Amino acid sequence: MASRAVMVAVLVAAVAATCARAQLHEKFYGESCPSVEDVVRKEMVRALSLAPSLAGPLLRMHFHDCFVRGCDGSVLLDSANKTAEKDAKPNQTLRGFNFVEKVKAAVEKACPDTVSCADILALMARDAVWLVSTTTILSKFANATSPYVWKLDSQCCSIMVFFQSKGPFWEVPLGRRDGSVSISNETNQLPPPTANFTVLTQLFAAKNLDSKDLVVLSAGHTIGTSHCFSFSDRLYNFTGRVNPTDIDHTLEPQYMAKLRNKCTSLNDNTTLVEMDPGSFRTFDLAYFKNVVKRRGLFHSDGALLTNAFTRAYVERHAGGGYKEEFFADFAASMIKMGNADVLTGSQGEIRKKCNVPNH
What we know:
Peroxidase, domain 1, three-stranded antiparallel beta sheet, 13 helices, 40% helix, globular
């Protein structure tokens, strides 16, 4: 198995050309706001220590932002007449908007009118994944010397808190600008949980993402929860007949029974179900184990088994023996997705508040 250092080097080489074309780079705020990553991460540490379930929604929010108009923060915009992206059905279950505003306010305090909401969201998504893949270490003498170890100094004591990563970490290319347009109808570009493999690959290809990116990024479902209505058609109305036998037979029967016990009807709009039962607050490889057992929650998860390439990828990582390889793949795909149709240079703006344009 390749070492982490080698994999990181491969990762950097794989995405360098793409990011260069988009004028994004990791040190974009090196002079204008060198503390931005520290500011974002400290807010993330505080929030996830109190509400670890927020990690999944923040990752999902970045994903939903990038698939509509590119990674421009448009998913964060409000609309007086409820016609913005966040008002569309696929985004009505997004949460964490108020926390994004809190992080933006902290960044504005440190560096006014400098860092875009789109960049902040990309950093928050990275830290959400990283922080739910960590082991907390208490030490008086530890030395944080790599990107996989991060130090949060205590304000009162000699003991310092460290986070040793057991999951993916990547340097986020920065320099995105914020858009000022957000249209609810454009959320039809988002891959729905009901999609088959053909539809999924078409929607991903529109963002310059291939089949490998599809199977890798789908593993983001290893953290977080979902409402029953996102998959209940598999339990009660798979072909439109609406009767007890109208089920998705590709779903493992015992898992089907458990889901039906939780989601008792097609009309259940409130119940939440863990997307990765047993470890939905930890970023790990359990997602692949579930999918290969036909226990992927969404139809789109099961669709990964219908293609030879994605099925082989799922089966390879279901065994858990190639963790570092998957983490490197996830980091590369996140960088690639984060480069989708970005605004740079003089395009767009740097919003003062993430939910409203400056003008």
